[in-house]
Amino acid sequence: MTHTSHAAFEHLRSQTIDSLNLRVEEYQHKVTGAQHIHLASDNPENVFLVALRTVPQDSRGVAHILEHTALCGSEKYPVRDPFFMMIRRSLNTFMNAFTSPDWTAYPFASQNRKDFDNLLDVYLDAVFFSRLDELDFAQEGHRLEFKEPDNPDSPLTFKGVVFNEMKGAMSSVPAQLWQSLCRYLFPTTTYHHNSGGDPEHIPDLTYEQLKHFYRTHYHPSNAIFMTYGDIPAEEHQAKFEAKALHRFERLNDVIAVGEEKRYHAPIAVEEAYPLEEGEDPTHKTHVVMGWLLGNITDLDQTLESQLMTAVLLDNSASPLLHALETSDLGQAPSPLCGLDDSQYELAFACGLEGCQLEKVPEVEQLILGTLERVAEEGVPQELIESALHQLELQQREVGGDGFPYGLQLIMNSLPAATHRADPIALLDLDSALVKLREKVRSPDFIPSLVRRWLLDNPHRLRLTLRPDSQFTRRAQEAEQKRLADISAKLTDDDRQWIVQRAKALQERQVQKDDDSILPKVGLEDIPKTMAYVEGSRETLDPKNPASDPLRRYGAGTNGLVYEQVTCKLPDISDEEQPLLPLYCNALTEVGLGNLDYLETQRWQASAVGGISASATVRGTTDDVQNIDAYFTLGSKALNRNAGAMNELLRATLTEPRFDEHNRLKELVSQMRARREQSITGNGHSLAMLAACAGMAPSARLTHRIGGLEGIAHLKRLDQALKDGESLKAYAAQLEGIHARLRVAPREFLLIGEPHQLDELRDTVQSHWPSEPPVADFRSFGLPAVHEPVREGWLTNTQVNFCAQAYPTVPSEHPDAAALTVLAGFLRNGYLHRTIREQGGAYGGGASQDNNIAAFRFFSYRDPRLADTLKDFEAAVDWLLSSEHEWQPLEEAILGVVSSLDKPASPAGEARQTYQAELFGRTREKRETFRNRVLGVTLADIQRVANEYLKPERASTAVVSHSGERAVLESLGLELREL
User: Fold this and answer.
1) Residue 690 · residue 962 · CB < 8 Å
2) What does the pLDDT look like over 399-458, one tens digit per residue?
3) Beta-bridge partner residues of 159
4) Please, are residues 225 and 50 in contact by the beta-carbon 8 Å criterion?
């Protein structure tokens, strides 16, 4: 690859990174000093990100609220909501904005060149020439409003999207733990504050403070431009210069995070978190220990810290994680266990959750005692080699299944760029890993790190977070008192001003902007056909047609091999079904054969980059009351370890040890802790699962094993496993499931570099001899289900998650395409405005799930409840009673096609194709569905809404808190408690 730069930019250096198949180029804008880092690759999915160093000095949420408000209209695009408008007018594969503790970033990705240029134009204008309208600040950040907006005598309330988002975010105990940890680990720097905003402090932020922060932080001299893909750096730079940079001079202010002032002795602090009234607080205390290490600008030090963390905490055989998992002082290791390397200075944390308050000193001694033993006795060299193996595998793997791959690489290097360190070094780890391998030859290497960074480091914190059942009540009373005090001081003019602003905001929210000024792509820009990954259809033994089926896919995996063993799911009784996720979890976490689980964990870490087991149940493409069900055991490894991976997979499927009863108990407790913590971050999905539970057998099962019902069952099971007999009975149930699975018909999936596929097939064949089919094998089945749901689930949250669902049709039905487009049309045209902008929820929308034939409405981190449910029904009335134009429909179609065509990693695309075809979703069926989407008309979406979304067919589920009990009962919802 060659590089040329635009005249406005100076080329600083370039470096080829063979392990990533790309060339990194670094440039600087001559006038402003803006940095441009370009990752040149032949990948057509181009990525752009502009990041600003943002260093707030309080917890008012200025950087976060600015991130939202900057996207609400700009100089060239003075419309109210260009960001969400562009999401609808685009074929983007990713669009978002992020606020971190010390930077704010605006990234997007697209495979379409016209679309990329459109988005770049809008993003540059939004970031550098934002309007920052005061009404947008009121909508996105915070505002005072009367409960009845036009009645100045009604009570005052706080409203705002970020205000409610952070109320929801801070309902999560892990989020509270992290904020408390940072508050004390960083007593003087920006990390002391909540960069997202503390709901108690967000109302203190003024509009003038927001504008001042924008002027000082959103300047090219404080900006980092990062790009990835096959568009040359020079072309990007020409647009940066023409669209933005030529209008700026250099700003000499240097925004940076300084070194934290170190403690001279460890500290211990105790804080409280809200617990639902009536819940037993005995085993609900969290204990976390935290240390501040070095800063991330030193790559060698960072890698050493990562290696030390991996040795201590990587898996159950790691000494510190083993001590935490097996201790009876707590329920499970803390979700904060690990190394945070996203900020200027590295932070290491570990601890336990589910503790008794009086046992806190014992938890501290457990952790320090374990570290002391490591420092004194060292660790086996194989643990260190396994940790290095995992680092190498992470470096080589081509990702892109959740994030675009280019964006992953950009995000990996962004922390270094933010702190003016070497971003290229963080990408090119090969030479640094070679140096690290030399260091670990010394048996004292890890012990010396543990002693220096942890045992002898006085900047240490012991944080205790204890439950308080009165916390929420007191916080609500404090907020109400604050509002009452404000209200008491308001003059009549003040009250009228609040009424008038609410009216002005409402008028602004419903006004019709001229969106023709925004660039767009249309249906004519969509590729005619969807991308398809071709795989082979063969048998494991080419000479034996009766041997196990095999699918092989050639892909650019950068020297990795991916393998799956897929079995038909056997018949599992109604009583056993809730144990299915526990069985899948235990299978890869217990011992194998003569090895106990610790030896097995070491084997896994040395051989593969992870091993997973899962069960998938779906309705068929023409009738969701009929199901297909499969179990999958999968792994990935470096090519040189393909044989070892197959040995491990075969042992996992044939020799698991469910006789390790204490291990099984630990796994249940750990899963319970993880699932309970997931509620506040995933409440909308859980509410939708509950609302759909009566519409299809697979939906009912998913709610029972992975939804709110599953969490409730997990809590009951964890409490029931108290003695040897109960554990023995539980283990026998898992053994019973496995005995049936062990003899199930199976097939194999292989994904690797094309030139290595034959060798990889031979490796699989040599490890998996064919086994005769079982004559009386019974596959998994479920009875049909057709029943409405009306449930209100009470849990520990400050906000609501609402869902309403309607039975519809599966993917093969001609109406499925129109229903899928309808969801986007309602979200864009009505729900975004009423649920988010006017209602103040962080999010809301609709979707059609063809796998269970259900149409779902939802809201996320929502301050409202009954009114949101009314808005769901009002959306359908709006659709049927209003005149609609073609363009919003085109935008909804674009959104659906963009999601269908969204690329994954090379291995991920092969896996997706295999999984789709396993469940009968052939290429032809998917192409038919895509073509039907492209042909949807306004008449189609009105017809299907009228036919399927009838009020009497609706099911409703809400995740809320005890303060909404009366409202939930008034809605006729059956109350369930977690």
Assistant:
1) no
2) 877 789 999 999 989 999 999 988 888 888 888 888 999 999 999 999 999 999 999 999
3) 143
4) yes
Q: In the predicted model, what is the mean pLDDT of the chain?
A: 94
Q: Do residues 76 and 65 lie in contact, with contact meaning Cβ atoms separated by under 8 Å?
A: no
d(CA 398, CA 605): 19
Rounded to an integer, what distance in angstroms lies between the CA atom of residue 28 and that of residue 223? 11
DSSP alpha helix (H) spans, 693-788: 697-706, 708-720, 724-742, 757-767
The whole-angstrom separation of Cα 856 and Cα 679 is: 19
Give all strands (DSSP E) within 263-375, no chain letters. Answer: 267-274, 285-295, 332-333, 338-340, 345-355
* Interacting residues of 229 by C-beta distance below 8 A, sequence separation 6+: 39, 41, 43, 44, 45, 46, 47, 406
Q: Mention every residue, 6+ apart, whose C-beta is less than 8 A from residue 469.
A: 274, 275, 276, 277, 278, 279, 281
Sign of torsion, CA 169 175 176 178? negative
- If you search the block for the tokens 């996207």, which residue do you land on? 71
Whole-Å CA distances, 778 to 175, 357, 570, 719, 743: 45, 50, 6, 33, 10
| Alpha-helix residue ranges (DSSP H) falling in 327-359 | none
- Residue 950: partners with Cβ closer than 8 Å, 6 or more residues away: 806
d(CA 691, CA 685) in angstroms, rounded, equals: 10
Q: Within 13 Å and on the Cβ side, how many CA atoms surround 666? A: 20
How many whole angstroms separate alpha carbon 488 and alpha carbon 698? 55
Whole-number Cα distances in Å, 85 to 80, 119, 347, 936: 9, 11, 39, 20
Name the packing angle between helices 299-313 and 430-439 (round to 10°).
Answer: 60
The answer to whether residues 57 and 217 touch, using CB atoms and an 8 Å cutoff, is: no
Confidence of residue 2 (pLDDT cuts 50, 70, 90): low
Which residue(s) pair with 847 in the sheet? 856
Express each pLDDT in 896-929 by its tens digit. 999 999 998 889 999 999 999 999 999 999 999 9
* Cα separation, 523 vs 293, whole angstroms: 53
Asked if 539 and 549 count as a contact pair (C-beta separation under 8 A), the reply is: yes
How many residues does this entry show for the chain? 978
What distance in Å separates the CA atoms of residue 379 and residue 371, rounded to the nearest whole number? 11
Task: Give the C-alpha separation, 142 to 159, whole Å.
Answer: 5
Distance, CA of 764 to CA of 533 (rounded, Å): 22
User: What letter would DSSP give residue 570?
Assistant: B
The amino acid present at 638, given as its one-letter code, is L
The CA-based angle 694-698-704, given to 5 degrees, is: 70
